[in-house]
Amino acid sequence: MSTYKPSEHDGLKQDGTPDKRVSSEHGFGGSDGPDPHVEGQKGGSVSGTDNYKPSEHGGQKKDGGEDARTRSDHGFGGSDGPDPHVEGQKGGSK
Q: Which parts of the chain fold into alpha helices (H)?
C-alpha cells in the first residue's frame, strides 16, 4: 500500500478536502510572504543607537550608580573562587 501525499494531489486529502498543511495560509512555507532565508541574512536590529555599556565607563551605570556586574566579587569572573573549568569537568552535583 502506498502512502497518500496531499502535496502530490493539489493539496487535497484522500477525502477531497483541502489539507491545511499544504496551504501557504497556515504561515509556513508559503511563497506569498517574505523569504525567511533572506530575512535571516539581514540579521537583527537594535532600535536606537544609545547602547550604554557600564564596562566601558569604569563600572558606572548611566545614572551614575555602580553596576555590580562589573565588579569581580559579584560572583562571576573573579579569580578568588574555584576554577569553573575544573569544576565543570567534575560533572554534576554530588
A: 36-42, 84-90
